[in-house]
Amino acid sequence: MTAPDLTSQLGSGASVLMPGVWDPLSALLAQEAGFQAVFLSGYCVSGSALGAPDIGLLTQTEMFDVARRVCSSVPSVSVVVDADTGYGNAVNTIRTVELWEQAGASGIFLEDQVWPKRCGHMAGKQVIDASDWITKLRAALDHRSALHVVARTDARAAHGLEDALERGRMARDLGVDGVFVEAPESVAELEAIAAALPDVTLVANMVETGKTPLLTPAELADLGFRLVLSPVSLLFSSVRAIRSSLQHLAAEGTMRGQMGDLVSFDDFTSIVGLDRHRAAQERYR
Fold it and tell me: Cβ(230)–Cβ(20) under 8 Å?
């Protein structure tokens, strides 16, 4: 399967905004809204597929299975797939790269946390030695075909901003396609990241109620960030909507009085492509 080219989107000069998705339905809704790139978030998949927090419980093959289904559901959309730490050493990372490309991913994020990792905006993170991380990144670059490789460092929380910047420079010099310094805590820190790494695609992670100030893609582009994640916006909003509907259903026994909160039956079947499937059934009747 050939993935859409994320590099060409970044070549337009504008920032690329990627909402976080976790299954084919959320990816289809993002596509319907006009997004040309999405991020398959480990945080979201862990919560939705396992009902568990993002603390390293999700396995490589579980993530691959979700990635395969998401990429096939939106073949015209670039899907960047979270790969946590590569699920082991450099050899494990090679297999991860191979699986992600089989799934149809456009890009991959590889981070430097100690396994089991945790969400980048949780406390208590630890990172591996920089040389071990660089070895895994080198393995990913050596074995990728067209995958956009982004190096993510969580050293800001573990060791401070200067160490994170040095790791970012090491990854840039290795030849990665992007650098992602996770969880800066102010606009001044975002500015410092951009100043230290002016010649590589930079990733900004906009997590609502997280550690980093929420900025728009235009504001981030002015600072020098080209790839912008909004990884949990859809998940958090859908959880709130589902919780509200469940409360109403439990109280009233019916959604009759809350129909305005629901999509219609026909609207939903349109989202999941009923007309296309019916056309195929008619053709091969």
Answer: yes
